[in-house]
Amino acid sequence: MRDNRRPRLPRLSIRSLPGLLAALLLPLGLLTPAAAAASPPDATAAADPVRIMPLGDSITGSPGCWRALLWNRLQGAGHTGIDFVGTLPPQGCGTAHDGDNEGHGGELVTNVASQGLLPARLAATRPDIVVMHFGTNDAWSNIAPDRILAAYDTLLAQMRESNPDMRVLVAQLIPMNPATCAACGRRVVDLNARIPAWAAGASTDRSPVVVVDQWTGFDTATDTYDGVHPGASGDEKIAARWFPALAAQLENTPGDPGDPGDPGDPTLTCTASFRSVSVWQGGYQAEVTVRNTSAAPVRGWTVTLRPADGARVTQVWNGALKPAADGTATVADAGWNGALAPGASTAFGLIAATTAGPAAPAATADCAATPAS
């Protein structure tokens, strides 16, 4: 049977017309080569956005409203060339933001590793940076820190297989105190204590692993609605902790044209992680780990420590203490431990006096870094 239909011509987008006209007119001498070269460039030539994957469980994804706060804080700081990615869609929060994420409620990081679930998700989203808060359900399930960190190893290898230049921000988990799991809080503390050393061993110059302390200063009584999942104040704290570390990575990641400042002069940031060592009536011993989370070396650091429950720092080693009348303690490096390469860490110890009974000590800790030159 003869087909009398007219052949279908390929559709031309408006964007392709200048290039087509140049190709037609140039052989006829109606357009000079210079004019042809001056045709507007294709919009696809613009730099691709930096793709950021929020990875974890329900704390990240259900609804994970800290992501909305973080997105808008980054936008407000000028980091507009970014794209939050994930195979899961936005899940509410009532705030306009890029809600794509990889926060699967109920997932264990050990299961994601053993079942090989991450590679397909990476292939579908192609992230440049992963922001990972993962392991809460594993702690609830009484899975040993060794197994959880082995799962981290597996996921990190899969991330680097997807992108050899992958940058990973890994959280020391927010505290957990559910009514049905009295031991869960201690398990999170045990895991968090192991994460900095794991990250230091896993980090490379090409694919840095940066620890972000989400535990210090987070109160399950006021910052969660069930002892596990963050409420409004918890979301604010989580976003505030992610922001400086993520912004520092964006300052040094190609493809984020909205970044403020000179890419050759990166923002210097550090984190300070508070950990209780021992407690007695009227006082406690603690350790603070300082980590350089920027992509440039630092020659010094200063930690501002605000102990909870009226405690006061009375003694410090591996640091220089300057107490304040309001109980705030400023601790500077001791000189020999001030220089830190990107991703490197050091620690100082302290003794604090308190009028409260023996309880779990807590403190908020902020860190400021000094440029290496």
Automatic annotation (TrEMBL):
Domain CBM2, chain residue ranges per copy: 263-370
Keyword Transmembrane tagged: no
Database matches in SMART domains: CBD_II
Entry keyword set: Carbohydrate metabolism, Polysaccharide degradation, Signal
Residues spanning the signal sequence: 1-37
A Pfam family of this chain: Lipase_GDSL_2
Keyword Signal: yes
UniProt cross-references to InterPro entries, sorted A to Z: CBD2 (IPR001919), CBM2/CBM3_carb-bd_dom_sf (IPR008965), CBM2_carb-bd_dom_sf (IPR012291), Ester_Hydrolysis_Enzymes (IPR051532), SGNH_hydro (IPR013830), SGNH_hydro_sf (IPR036514)
Protein name per UniProt: CBM2 domain-containing protein
Species assigned in the record: Streptomyces tunisiensis
